[in-house]
Amino acid sequence: MQRMTLREMVGQLVIVPFYGENPASKRREYQEYLRLVKQAGVGGLILLNRVQGGVVRNAEPFALASFLNRMQKEAKVPLIVGGDFERGSSMRVSNTAKFPHAMAYGAANDLESTRKTGAATARESRALGVHWVFAPVADVNNNPENPIINTRSYGEDPKLVAAHVKAYIEGAHSLKRGGVLVTVKHFPGQGDTAVDTHMGIAKVTGDRDRLDSLELLPFRAAIAAGVDGVMTGHLAVPAIENREIPATVSSKMIQGLLRKELGFEGLAVTDAMDMQGLTKQFPSGEAAVRAIEAGVDVLLIPASADAAIRGLMEAVASGRITGNRIHQSVAKILSAKHKLGLFQNRLVNLEAISEQIDSPEFSDLAQTVAEQALSTMKNEKALVPLRDTSTACLITLAENRQSSSGKRMIEEALARAPKMRTIWLDPTLKPADFTETAGQLGNCSTIVIAAFVAAASFRGDVSLAPVFATFVDEVMALSRPVVFCAVGSPYLLRKVPMADAQVATFSTTVTSEAALIRGLFGEVPMGARSPVTISAP
Question: Structure pTM?
Answer without folding.
Answer: 0.96
